[in-house]
Amino acid sequence: MSHYQKLVEHSLKISRFEHLGSICGWDQTAVMPSGGNEARSEAMAELSVHLHQLGNAPQLAEWFDKAESESLSDNEQASLREMKLKWQQSTALPEALVQAQSLAGSKCEHAWRTQRGENDWEGFSKNFAEVVALSQEEAQIRANISGLTPYDAMLDLYEPGTTTAKLDVVFNDVKTWLPTLIQNIQEKQSTESIYLPDGHYPTEQQRQLSVDVMKFLNFDFNHGRLDVSMHPFCGGVPTDVRITTRYDENDFVQSLMGTVHETGHARYEQGLPKEFAGLAVGQARSMGIHESQSLFFEMQLGRSAKFISQLSPLVQKNFVNADQKIFKTDNLQKIYTRVNPDFIRVDADEATYPAHVILRYEIERDLMNGKIGYKDIPELWDAKMQQYLGLTTKGNYKNGCMQDIHWTDGSFGYFPSYTLGAMYAAQFMAAIKQTVDVEKATLSGDLSLIFTWLSDNIWSKASLFSTDDLVKQATGDVLNASFFKAHLEKRYLG
Amino acid sequence: MSHYQKLVEHSLKISRFEHLGSICGWDQTAVMPSGGNEARSEAMAELSVHLHQLGNAPQLAEWFDKAESESLSDNEQASLREMKLKWQQSTALPEALVQAQSLAGSKCEHAWRTQRGENDWEGFSKNFAEVVALSQEEAQIRANISGLTPYDAMLDLYEPGTTTAKLDVVFNDVKTWLPTLIQNIQEKQSTESIYLPDGHYPTEQQRQLSVDVMKFLNFDFNHGRLDVSMHPFCGGVPTDVRITTRYDENDFVQSLMGTVHETGHARYEQGLPKEFAGLAVGQARSMGIHESQSLFFEMQLGRSAKFISQLSPLVQKNFVNADQKIFKTDNLQKIYTRVNPDFIRVDADEATYPAHVILRYEIERDLMNGKIGYKDIPELWDAKMQQYLGLTTKGNYKNGCMQDIHWTDGSFGYFPSYTLGAMYAAQFMAAIKQTVDVEKATLSGDLSLIFTWLSDNIWSKASLFSTDDLVKQATGDVLNASFFKAHLEKRYLG
């Protein structure tokens, strides 16, 4: 057996254990009774140890070495490249640091769950200081290995190939036009009349509506499920994708569009190439490309006027006893395109969302590169919120720098993926429109031409190419944020 | 660390992987979409290999050796004994035999799923011959190690300590009175008038009824769930017990009592001692004792007149739109104590069930001990069915010797557990009645005195004692089938 083949076998073995972890993780979040948590957490921790051992098996260094001089096809070379990147990233850190991070992250996140409600920055920052210090250590180690800056080395975990140099250009440009755009949209919308949900929308009917929409979006129920969890997510494995949502019986709006969003993630997973199942090269390209699919479904497709005209009868059908004027296409469209600067990122609309991300990006970049300390965060947060969205968070930690879970366990470098995703989604839609009449397809109720484009250009390509090459092959250009800007202008001011 | 402690740590590690397997196994049966099956099966097979490696780790022989001369408490000695038994059983067979059995069993079971419907004994026996030969080989190897007869060595896997010598005495006695008892019951019941379910019983209402009954039986929903599967089972882990049922919208009867049965299994699991969690000594004593708990719930408690009088209002409450005369205590009781000799074991009533088991016991005993061959089975089956239940299965393989899944993958030695369970259940009830007024407790709606007895005497004892000692401590006697006989006579002829 060639060394490349040995690496493949080893990767498949790892992926089978990851499969068990994915399903048990879904179970833990979506269906497990709370009394099962302690034993489950122990079982999951045991699995983590095992996966760590497999990922760091001593023979791998030699296998990678030898595999690189073996005769491999293009796809095999890509597969080897991705396996090696994953291996390098997972073996980069000393075990003691990984354990210290796990402990500090758990402690900080656990305490944060109550501290946030109590607006307790003082208490939070005691734990957070440790998390930041350990993440800075991690970033420095990864920087030493990769030759990147510390923050870029962290970015590489989520967005391989993306750098601060690229992001600064893109985000600085956004900052020049976004605040004005938001003001103009608000002005335009200020005279709109809108009917907000005010009825009772039973869970079972919301669930049926979600299923109807997922079917419209060609979600493959033979390879996936819809369930309920506190925080919606997309989990499971590509042959069995588990998405979740949550239902508020006073308001169907968020849940419905949340389902559209998660269905985008799910179809990417369901559409990954079977021939590379279980291998790094067969996985989603990056967090940003993953988010581009959920945001393509939610923002490019889901909140478009034509899509909402298809949604409207489904909503009416499922809530026959509720006030029907809320469900009219025109009103639903107003609901789903309402722009309103506010404190909370996860509740933000399409137009203000990038401001939340750029703010976080700038802070975590300077934090990882050692230009600021964690104590500087609240003041910077307040200043940037004022600058980008005209809101102050002075003294308001819980709706300011303590609102997100990401930093509590040291996931620095993740935030840019959200806005990269929005930008890629707009760029993909522009490319699709060159060959597909998207509005006509949407009105016909048959979206298959759109999905075929996504499958051919994104899903089936998995991690065969770098993000830049993937996007260039699909659209003729690397990341170009002008499509996103044009999209916002057309939808909100056009 | 002592060698005993090393064994404990190793067992806990194994049990954490088994935990993942239990949950993913539940998922596979209860919620997984069928398209997920191939990848799941691969993941489960990978886990099996890993568990096999852990269970056969080379250092264990030395650890067991040294642990036996360490100073251990009584509980620790019991724990060591159970760990060692499990280890000996799992290491007894050469790997090649285990693999051959796995292949032959899968092949035979898979083909059986269609061959049974086609009544194709000819086709079935081609695969079955191999399964039998391999099981005979297994039985001989286990016999050589344990000094038992081949069949007793197989029995030991499910009912440690139980032997053919004991079973022959008990079952031969049953055969002297059971056929007459069944005739007398049928005669008595022949003049009864009975209203059978003839309405529409929606799944959601049946589910609510199941939950109501589980609450009445003190099922701990903080440590378990009720779901749906084709074949009801009790799975999961003690801190998170997953039971399933299935709903027939034309008939609530089977599902309801099936839930009572699985709740008995579940409460045993939920009641196992926390201090021995993850260790062999902390597991259920045997298949027979497990079945004694489900049958205690279903037969001793569930089908008693007083319990049914409590069930009746719950049924009425959940099916307000259906014909109420069916739900009257008197009628429900007739439904749940109807005796009718028939071909199929899983559908058999309480009185005829032992005949099905004894028939299988006698055949598998002689088969494993080499006294008969697999070709003799159809004729023996027919003769014994005529003798015990007055029915012929000549040429009727699908409702005869091809009806059960057990033998298709070589699970010889399991069948006696069902009737041992029924006998233990009757013996436990007789013992409980010496200190608890069971009828009064049932009528009061508070069954806690009964459950306290079961918890104190059975659940909390796990595998600390041999089955004989457990039963003797609980009831003052080892297995005594006269309680079962007396129970049947009282319920059906009293």
From TrEMBL, chains A, B:
Its EC number is 3.4.17.19. Binds 1 zinc ion per subunit. Its cofactor is Zn(2+). This is Metal-dependent carboxypeptidase. It comes from the Bacteria. Zn(2+) binds at H261, H265, E291. It is an enzyme of class 3 (hydrolase). It holds the Pfam family Peptidase_M32. Belongs to the peptidase M32 family. The lineage of its organism: Bacteria, Pseudomonadati, Pseudomonadota, Gammaproteobacteria, Vibrionales. It catalyses: Release of a C-terminal amino acid with broad specificity, except for -Pro. The active site is at E262. One of its GO terms (biological process) is proteolysis. InterPro entries: Peptidase_M32_Taq (IPR001333). Broad specificity carboxypetidase that releases amino acids sequentially from the C-terminus, including neutral, aromatic, polar and basic residues. Keywords: Carboxypeptidase, Hydrolase, Metal-binding, Metalloprotease, Protease, Zinc. GO terms for molecular function: metallocarboxypeptidase activity; zinc ion binding.
